[in-house]
Amino acid sequence: MNYYIDIRVLPSSEFSDCILMNELFSRLHKVLVEFGNGEVGVSFPKVNKTLGDLLRLHGRQPVLQQLMATPWIGGLKDYIAVSGVNPIPENVSHRAVKRIQSKSSAERLIRRSVRKGWLTDEEAALKISDKSEKKLSLPYIRMKSHSTGQSFLLFVEHGPILSSPITGAFTAYGLSAHATIPWF
Q1: pTM surpassing 0.85?
Q2: Annotated active-site residue in 29, 58, 94, 158
Q3: Which domains does the chain carry?
Q4: H or E stretch including 132?
């Protein structure tokens, strides 16, 4: 991971930054499913309570060039500014950027446990209570599943800052629980 591309969402009177970032990330996910091979990582350098208006792609120069040669951005060109493929600055920190899945509603947990065959209806009702619900306060992207059509929140956590990188593969979301991206 020695190169990066910055994609900034531009202010718009038509759409909020969040809506544009959701659409940008959804399109990126689609192209990474087909093309990524675990070689492209993402980060959100302006993360705070939201993910901010900047999406950074990390990877090797030829991989990022090949990614940007595909038409995945399409109709968003008027709403974003894309940098060139740039080398990572020297002496940067590193951090993992990963997906966190919430143990949302007790009702959903019960349905899932029964559907997967882990518990019977009665066991699930006894073991899973409203106390097991966990609400997350992490920033997120609103996504729509291409396979089921259902909307969901993809919560993103930027891990602790590290002094050295950890190599590994990235998901089709550009996230990894262990592999790090350069942080600057």
Answers
A1: no
A2: 29
A3: 3-99+142-183 (3.30.70.2540), 103-132 (no CATH)
A4: none
